Backbone:
């Protein structure tokens, strides 16, 4: 995906001057060899840092090599001041790991004490206010450290991506549907740029492209992608016109930002003025790594982008929408396994989910908008939605959100998309989350999250949680297992 960072990792070994510097260098070389064997590319910085001047030299080498993420490797105890200064002055995410001792036959000259050094490294990072990634158990052999470095890559990708992201918003939310509104000041604190625009800005740009020669080509690409699922072929030129308009807007307005996402108003005036629903365009751009959140949901777009960085796979944005009828649950009981009826719900949106995430996708009209805008006629201005059931497999529900008083909080819940026909319309699937009923009440409701959830395909909670910690998000909720109470949960319920 072109809209996510490419992480270029550099590794710098550090050495306390009363320990053999050769020990750190030798162990660094072993980590690089293990990483290469595992298919990772690590830029090995040859300067081993013992003092401040070494730290400055290593920073110059990292910059010359184009590294945007750093692994600080304690091959032995390490020098507390220079190593934390190295992390403080590096312009990108930093990871700290340490070497385990290798053999009982070499515990005199070959003992490095990095197990001890990691404690003091952490203390000094705190003194300097550096938020570095430290794995759950950050001490290991060369092969184990290489595995830790592999787990750092999606975390680094999220941190780099957020700090170079611009979210374009088009239009305010309707007065009777303000749930996803939240202050944007915390986004600037993260390094995210936000450019809010009027629907009229988009409408003017859209109309300027009415005879654009690219429309025919893009419409043909859409038809080929949809294949036999194209049930509304006449709307494709308008959808193509919107797609090139959004991409042109991003190219002209990205400015200093390298990555982009959209949060666009999509009803009710959109249909009457643009003559379509934009859902399929949203799905196509999201499938290419450019999330387009519905209903001007800026934090939804951010959440989708974080998932895109974490997985390099398309996410989607769904309403945590409706319960699963009991007869539907019983009919699919063999596929629900140990999940209870209150563990499952339907995730739904009008038709914004990328085509690669749906079974039997079809281009249709948007039923809810049709009921509202043209109930007594055949679908016209409400055409353009992509419908289908979600692919089955592991999923992660995720949202990063600001409170009304500008505090960032988040939730992460891992579960599954179940291979049971939801028997309804839209981009929709039956999702199972362990202990969902309690999570729904004591996280989603109690902490006042909106109904939109970003959905990533795969279990990626570990990377998300670590990235949020690096970004300074203190309140990260998750679905508590049975028997472990949430704060405020009634123990007698």
Residues:
């Amino acid at each position: 995906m072109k809209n996510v960072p490419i992480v270029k990792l550099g590794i710098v070994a550090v050495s306390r001057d009363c320990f053999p510097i050769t020990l750190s260098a030798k162990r660094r070389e072993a980590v690089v060899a293990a990483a290469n064997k595992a298919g990772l590319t690590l830029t090995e910085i040859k300067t081993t840092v013992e003092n401040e001047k070494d730290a400055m030299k290593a920073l110059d080498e990292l910059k010359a090599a184009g590294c945007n993420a750093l692994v600080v490797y304690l091959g032995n105890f390490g020098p507390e001041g220079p190593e934390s200064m190295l992390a403080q002055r590096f312009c990108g995410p930093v990871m700290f790991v340490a070497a385990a001792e290798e053999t009982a036959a070499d515990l005199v000259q070959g003992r490095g004490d990095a197990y001890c050094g990691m404690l003091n490294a952490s203390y000094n990072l705190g003194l300097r206010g550096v938020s570095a990634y430290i794995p759950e158990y950050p001490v290991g052999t060369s092969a184990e450290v290489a595995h830790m470095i592999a787990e750092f890559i999606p975390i680094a990708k999220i941190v780099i991506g957020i700090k170079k992201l611009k979210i374009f918003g088009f239009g305010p939310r309707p007065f009777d549907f303000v749930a996803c509104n939240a202050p944007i000041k915390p986004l600037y604190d993260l390094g995210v740029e936000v450019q809010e625009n009027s629907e009229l800005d988009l409408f003017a740009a859209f109309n300027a492209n009415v005879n654009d020669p690219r429309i025919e080509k893009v419409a043909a690409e859409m038809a080929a992608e949809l294949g036999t699922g194209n049930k509304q072929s006449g709307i494709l030129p308008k959808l193509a016109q919107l797609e090139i308009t959004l991409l042109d807007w991003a190219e002209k307005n990205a400015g200093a930002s390298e990555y982009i996402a959209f949060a666009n108003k999509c009803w009710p005036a959109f249909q009457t003025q643009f003559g379509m629903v934009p859902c399929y365009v949203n799905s196509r751009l999201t499938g290419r790594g450019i999330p387009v959140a519905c209903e001007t949901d800026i934090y939804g777009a951010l959440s989708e982008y974080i998932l895109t960085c974490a997985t390099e796979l398309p996410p989607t944005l769904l309403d945590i929408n409706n319960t699963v009828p009991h007869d539907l649950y019983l009919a699919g009981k063999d596929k629900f396994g140990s999940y209870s009826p209150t563990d499952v719900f339907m995730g739904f949106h009008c038709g914004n989910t990328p085509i690669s995430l749906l079974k039997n996708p079809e281009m249709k009209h948007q039923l809810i908008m049709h009921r509202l805008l043209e109930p007594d006629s055949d679908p016209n201005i409400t055409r353009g939605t992509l419908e289908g059931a979600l692919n089955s497999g592991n999923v992660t529900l995720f949202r990063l959100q600001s409170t009304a008083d500008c505090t960032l909080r988040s939730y992460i819940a891992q579960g599954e998309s179940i291979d049971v026909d939801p028997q309804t319309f839209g981009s929709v699937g039956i999702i199972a989350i362990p202990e969902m009923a309690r999570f729904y009440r004591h996280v989603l409701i109690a902490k006042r999250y909106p109904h939109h959830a970003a959905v990533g395909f795969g279990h990626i909670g570990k990377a998300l949680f670590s990235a949020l910690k690096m970004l300074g998000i203190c309140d990260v909720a998750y679905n508590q297992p049975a028997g472990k109470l949430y704060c405020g949960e009634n123990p007698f319920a």
Remarks:
- The chain has a mean pLDDT of 95.
- The longest strand covers residues 408-418.
- The chain is about 40% helix and 20% strand.
- Residues 142-163 form the longest helix (22 residues).
